[in-house]
Amino acid sequence: MALKLRVHVPTHPLIQHWLSVARDEATPTVLFRSAMTELGRWLAYEATRDWLATIDTEVQTPLATCAATFINPDVPVAVVPILRAGLSLLDGAQALLPLASIYHIGLVRNEETLEASCYLNKLPAQFPANTRVLIPEPMLATGGTITAVMAELTARGIDSSLVRIISVVAAPQALQKLGGSYPDLVIYSAAIDEGLNNQGYIVPGLGDAGDRTFGTF
Ligand code: URA
Questions:
Q1: Do 127 and 158 touch, CB atoms closer than 8 A?
Q2: Per the structure, how many domains does the chain have?
Q3: CB 168 within 8 A of CB 19
Q4: For residue 70, is it within any domain?
Q5: How does pLDDT run across 32-44, given as a tens digit for each residue?
Q6: Which domain holds residue 160?
Q7: Candidates 168, 202, 217: which one to mutate for ligand 1, based on the most atoms within 8 Å of Cβ?
Q8: Using CB atoms within 10 A as the burial measure, which of 46, 47, 156, 194 is most buried?
Q9: Residue 64 falls within a domain, yes or no?
């Protein structure tokens, strides 16, 4: 099946720098966490470029009247970090979106079947119309977890064309799966890697993003 969804790989040197720091197995946990925060910030910056609703108006400067553009505070913005690893990108993204509501969702992957099951869901029963959703999910591997989250969101009234996913490393398998189900979804990923090993880890990837963020090896 042809890949229909829109996947952006920003070439910004800061994104490539922090990606390289995160990939390096010699990077200690404290620096890995900083790298992920920076990636959250810069990926969110790129992903929100044409997504945040704005209002055009005027302001009075000390010298004259001037055209002005503000973020529209009446259009709801939600961030849905997928526990655990999604938390690593949250601080950076939240710095850019201080008024966003944060709805946590926790999924764990069965290491044998690679199926995702949900153990925490703080999503509302229904989202307000036109809510924009940013999903920080650093590793898009098999696509099982993110597809399950997308199903929860669309069941609650979210329009998939208003969703942006920020990811650090994506595998073609996940992009293929998402493209089949949500062709209008937009993804910003610092890299697209070759594929998965037989344990479902992205190769070359960066290892287990949750363990490297929280120092649980
Ligand atoms: N989750 C991770 O943390 N790393 C991978 O490579 C795949 C899934």
A1: yes
A2: 1
A3: yes
A4: no
A5: 999 999 999 999 9
A6: 6-53+75-214
A7: 202
A8: 47
A9: no
